[in-house]
Amino acid sequence: MAAPHLSPGTGAVVRLVKAGREKVRYDATVRGDDGVRVTVTAPWSLPTVRDFGFVAFAPGDVFTEHYWRDRWYAVKEVRDPAGALKGWYCDITRPVVVDGAELTSVDLDLDLWVSSDGSDVRRLDEDEFAASGLAASDPRAAAMASETLDDLERIALAGGLPGLTA
Questions:
Q1: Long-range pairs for 26-35: beta carbons < 8 A, 24 or more residues apart
Q2: How do strand 50-51 and strand 56-57 relate by DSSP bridges?
Q3: pLDDT(100) > 90
Q4: How many Å apart are CA 96 and CA 83, to the nearest integer?
Q5: Torsional sign, CA 30, 158, 156, 144
Q6: CB–CB of 132/109 below 8 Å?
Q7: Within a 10 A sphere around the Cβ of 156, how many other Cβ atoms?
Q8: Residues 6+ apart with CB under 8 A from 39
Q9: Where are the beta strands (DSSP E) in 19-157?
Q10: Which stretch is the leader sequence (predicted)?
Q11: Is the pLDDT score of 1 beyond 60?
């Protein structure tokens, strides 16, 4: 039996889980749900700036987040308070689990950053992934995570990442 779709304009809670523990939980607003992809918007969830060196996330930034029930990633479009696109942060995850109005995304440690003009495509946290032990504990998931990161990087380098979120 298919899960009911979330209604646009309603509230949702996003849970990001890493290494079996909840890393962060925040409120979001549903923008759409076609039964496969759920799109939500949420403000940057921390009261402080997080500067990665290549991009900084700050209070007032708005994230439009795309989660798939059948794909091993989530894509988060990031805009500053004035609406200017900063870029896309891609989390390699297990397919999202939607339970009521709660979305649970299990982070597999690999990430990809793509700048707004596509000139900066960065693989992130490969050291964390290697140290996570996932390759030993769940070789299938580790293989899917690595393959998914490679696929998203190819798509981004070909200029196709915005097409994933359209």
A1: 28/65, 28/103, 30/6, 30/101, 31/64, 32/8, 33/5, 33/6, 33/7, 33/8, 33/98, 34/5, 35/2, 35/3, 35/5, 35/69
A2: antiparallel
A3: yes
A4: 27
A5: positive
A6: yes
A7: 23
A8: 30, 31, 32, 33, 64, 65, 66, 67, 165
A9: 21-33, 37-43, 50-51, 56-57, 62-68, 73-79, 85-93, 97-99, 102-115, 121-124
A10: none
A11: no
Q: Which amino acid is at 91?
A: D
Helices (H), the chain: 126-131, 134-137, 139-157, 161-165
Q: Are 28 and 65 in contact (CB under 8 A)?
A: yes
Q: Which of 1-10, 33-42, 62-71, 83-92 has the lowest mean pLDDT?
A: 1-10
* Residues, the chain: 166
| Structure confidence at residue 81 (pLDDT) | 95
* Amino acid sitting at position 3: A
Domains of the chain: 11-165 (2.40.380.10)
Cβ 89 vs Cβ 79: under 8 Å: no
Q: Which two tokens stand for residue 15?
A: 């849970």
Q: Which structure tokens are listed for 28?
A: 């979001």
